[in-house]
Amino acid sequence: MYNEFNQEFILLLPKLKPDCDVKASVQLGKWDERQSKVFADVASSLDYEAFGVTKSVSSVPTMWARPLLMEMALHNQGHPLHKQMIAQWEGMLAAIALAEARGFPLTAQLVELSDLLHEDFADSLFQLLPDIDNALYTLNGKHPWQDIYLFLWDKRSVGMTTPSAIVVPCEGGQWTGLPWWNKNDKVLVSPQSYLNESEKALLWGWLENLRQELPQHNGKKNAINMMGRLISEFQSNLKGNHQESLSFSNDPQFFGVPLNRGVLKALNRPIKASEKPSGVRLIASQNKQVKPLLIIDTEIASAWHVAPQDIWVYGGKTLASLSINDLRTGKLMWQDVRWIESKDLFLPEFVFIDQEDALPGGFIPQETEPFVFNGQRITPLLPLNPILLEYFTPEDLISKLKFQPLHEKEGSTLRVILDLPLTGFDDGKPPQNYRVYKDYLIKQENALPEVPVLEVWPDFRTKGWHEYYAFYYDAEYKDETFQVSLPEAKEAKIFQEGRGSYQVARLDEFPSLISCQDRLGNLIGLILLQTPEETQLRSSWQVGVDFGTSFTNIYVNKNGVAEPLQLENLILKVTETQIDTRLPVLFEYFIPENFIPADKPLPLSSVVTTRGSTETREDKLRHIFDGRIYIPDRNRFKPQENWMKTNLKWSRDNLSFNQLFLKHLAIHISALAAKHGIKTIQWSLSYPSAFSRRDKNLYALTWENLTKDLENRTGISQICPDTSNTDFFRTESLATAQYFRDQEGHRLIKTTCIDLGGGTSDISVWEENRLVHQCSVQLAGRDLFSQFLEMNPQFLERRFEVNLSDWRGLRGGAFNAKLDVLLRLEGDNWLQNIKPHVEDEEDFQGLIRLTAIGTAGLYYYVGIILKVLYEEGKYKREEITPVYVGGNGSRFLNWLAEGGQFNNNSEVNLLLSRMLSKGSKFDDTEVITRLSKSPKDEVACGLVLNETKIAGLDRKIKDSLIAGESYELNGEVFHSQTRLNFEEEDIFLEIPNLTNLSQFLYDFHTALKELEIEGITPLANYIRIPNQDKNSNLWGEVKDELTNLLLDKKGKSENIRFEPPFILGLKALLRVLGREWAGK
Asked: Which InterPro entries does the annotation name (predicted)?
């Protein structure tokens, strides 16, 4: 009531019911002493009907008013606050029971009043302890109300324990975040409607444990019965299946202190978090072996039209009980799963390429409407978190992704929609879809005007293939384009050269995505790559590899048919860039899209580039990553650069680069094989018989090691021959003979085959399909032609119109490599269109003469071989043989022929036949030299042919070289027809006389005269006599040059590449004559 006199409220209690048991006081204004039961009697006797929400009465005159009021309301069904207090009481019990399962911030503190009697307030509480009429437990030596527990929610008091009511929530307690707390009225309510079925079942079990605890602690029987009834009623209201297996928390002090006073022991261990399958686990693509990923989003419940407590997350947490802030701060950590908030599946900004179809190798969603900005088509970078690609294949992710252009007032907007298959309510059977999206305003500031060069090799998949490489070049666009990272890369090499930024990455699997970044490394978008169909490996190939000094060739036998390896493009072109930007950098730093010349890309130049490599140790170089086969063209090829490596076959200083070339070659061949479903490769390898024993063994070991590694990395069975397997490890001379017999159909009745390469001429002599002799001499294209142009580069400038500045500083292998490329690309055209106009010029005649002398000298030596073989009884005919010539160096016969095309009618045929005759002392029967139909294909092709079984291939004994010229070995004299058998460990070789060589030069000039050879002119100052007397200056210079050559023929025999003395003398002669022609 309001007292107007002193303007204050006076609290009046409602009138009593007519049939109440409360007796009035005997004397008004005087305190009567009554039992505590009177408070309950008064409460139940009030004649009161509340309007709206009933508030608790606060006029009970005791410091223990709130807990006593709860006791009265619970124990007295007629109490006007009975229902409200029951709801609050149930709400607090449920909060305690589910504290761990729901992750509630609930803690407890023990208050022992007997220890606080020095405090006035505590002393007052102690003096006014309620009676124990309704106590549920006793304490040894203590009043049960002496020890109470305070419960705190986020460190703020929200309730307490009592011996009579078990728990009492505070008036106006702040249970912020508890689902069954009415934040408007600041009261707890009954929790049933906020619990899922599992939680109801578990809470029922927890209450049953509490009910069973009641009679265990010497409490008052009436109080135990009343509280048992209230708990049973609470249980009855938890409708549903109560068979859920109940577990209690493993933490003995979950609330911070042990709750161990009487019945309160049942509160000490809340319900242990239930382990149920997550309903928010992302269902990954098939065969993705990854940690489960949980999608955290409170909106999932409303999207699925279910309560959040019915959606299990992990570890007993539901969407209702999970505190996302605990995950963010690390307070809650999960070991066996990963989690992400759905909003974090999208990037903050949408970045795009301001070009149409800029990503031909990329995988983007199908357009519902064209991607347009400012009226122009654009190419999007996908604004997605790359974690999605750990769980989805690109194909699956694209199928779940949609781009929806919106037309908003703010400007062009793109809605990116992602449909996520989650496990839902039956462990993903079927999946439950959850759609998330983000709207992006398309901004000019997020437009990229340019794209980099971005390529992946190889563009296929087969079981067991683990060799993939990616290449990036920013084309010097800097901030106008994006940088990249490949999350699946095993290693990446990033480097700068000039103003350009480059990256080469190695991967074990075909990449599913490329992360695009700005220059600060921030993720700005993704490029997805479509997964190639997996090729099944079934068939087999036999692959012949002719590793040459200048060029390397490869043939394949497919089902009995020998053909050149088809060098297909296996590169996935991810970005669309200008061809004059893309192709040069692929040639220099990666694997080219195409090979040149396009009409006949084989053979490959035997050249390696290490450009871009950061590896300082040569023995640590890795194929592709640190070095690659180089595909040169006329203008771009600069072998003088330190990253260009030539002379790979013969230089022992280049062993690491030799192996690097072969490894890249083998992996590239294997890739082409895998693309065609090849399961097994039988390698067939050739080597020159001029190889020393060490050379041969080292070459075989290189292939053995690289094929072992290849088998592990490619899934292809790699069969590599050892040195004793003559079916698949042959000399170049034998492979050449097999080619001429099986591919061109020439008989080997009495035949000499010569594989005239860049560094060696491999010779084999045949009689009736039987090998009589084979050898390899280091006299070939570089000696017969290339060295002369190196001596006289002005000839190149005059006749080939080259820029000499591009050739400056080139020596030896580097010069030869560049010349080989020039001749390969321009040689035929020059012979057909330029030679007819200059063939009578003095400088050209000089070059032709030198090549003719060298070639004739080689034939002369073959004649000596025939003679020795005949005298040894190994060759039965006293006849010279037709000669089949192949190899890269065989093209120089065209330079000797009129019209630039060597054939059976070329006059040089007569000259070469005469040289065979003179060298052998057999009659000149004008045998024909046949030039291969496919120069440089002979060895590689012959390696994979076996139609004709020719005898002698399996000979274990190596044919010793025939000297051809008298020599001294360690002081002992040997005549010209002996064989070089260097059994001594240490070698000292001398060639004091050049009798046969001087006879050859005489016979050569005599033949020019007698055969009336018109296209080849004699040496100008040469006096035609068989001895050396009249040409002493010439032969003196030749002997000096020979002495210089012999310096390399001393030392340990196993390390020496032996050469016939006649050939050594011929090489010395050619060098002397070449310098004279060059004016040096």
From this structure: ATPase_NBD (IPR043129)
Binning pLDDT at 50, 70 and 90, where does residue 50 land?
Answer: very low
Where residue 1060 falls (left for φ over 0; alpha for ψ -120 to 50; beta otherwise) is beta
> Phi, psi at residue 627, to the nearest 5°?
-170, 150
Q: Which residues pair with 574 in a beta bridge?
A: none
State mean pLDDT over 168-195: 93
Q: What is the dihedral of CA 914, 915, 919, 920, to 10 degrees?
A: -40
What whole-number distance in Å separates Cα of residue 687 and Cα of residue 834? 36
CA angle, residues 73, 74, 78, in degrees to nearest 5: 55
What are 373's strand-pairing partners?
Answer: 376
How far apart are alpha carbons 723 and 699 in whole angstroms?
A: 9
Task: Strand 608-609: give its sheet, edge to edge.
Answer: 628-629, 608-609, 644-645
pLDDT in tens, 849-865: 999 999 999 999 999 99
Domain boundaries, the chain: 10-19+37-267, 293-448, 450-536, 745-931+960-1075
Q: What is the pLDDT of residue 323?
A: 84
pLDDT > 90? residue 480 = yes
How far is the C-alpha of 593 from the C-alpha of 451, rounded, in Å?
18
**pLDDT band for position 51 (cuts 50, 70, 90):** very low
Separation CA 454–CA 482 (nearest Å)? 11
| Percent of residues, the chain, with pLDDT higher than 90 | 63
Condensed to tens digits (0 to 9), the pLDDT of residues 994-1024 reads 999 999 999 999 999 999 999 999 999 899 8
The CA-to-CA distance between both ends of the chain, in Å, stands at 133
d(CA 118, CA 115): 8
Number of CB atoms found within 10 A of residue 602's CB: 18
Beta bridge partners of 501: 496
CATH 1.10.510 fits 450-536, yes or no: no
Q: Give the integer Cα–Cα distance in Å for 49 and 52.
A: 10
Residue with tokens 């929400």: 53
* Contact in structure between 938 and 739 (CB atoms under 8 Å): yes
Q: Are 695 and 669 in contact (CB under 8 A)?
A: no
In the structure encoding, which two tokens stand for residue 207, read together? 């209450």
Report the mean per-residue pLDDT for the chain.
89
Q: What are phi and psi of 719, to 5 degrees?
A: -100, 115
**In whole angstroms, what is the distance from residue 518 CA to residue 55 CA?**
62
- The pLDDT-based confidence of 948 (bands split at 50, 70, 90) is confident
**Which residue, among 174, 171, 168, has the nearest Cα to 156 in the 3D structure?**
174
**pLDDT tens-digit map of 381-420:** 999 999 999 999 999 999 999 999 888 777 789 999 999 9
Same topology, domains 450-536 and 745-931+960-1075? Answer is no
Residues in the chain: 1080
| Mean pLDDT of the region 13-21 | 61
CA-based radius of gyration for the chain:
48
3-state helix, strand, coil in the chain (%, to 5): 35, 20, 45
pLDDT at site 569: 94
Task: Name the residue type at position 42.
Answer: V
User: 859: which residues sit within 8 A by CB, 6+ positions away?
Assistant: 883, 912, 915, 916, 919
839-848 pLDDT per residue, tens: 888 999 999 9
Alpha-carbon torsion, ordered 666, 669, 673, 675, to 10 deg: 120
At residue 310, the pLDDT reads 84
User: May I ask the CATH class of domain 745-931+960-1075?
Assistant: alpha beta
CA distance 795 to 967: 37
SS3 967: strand
Looking at residue 801, what DSSP letter applies? -
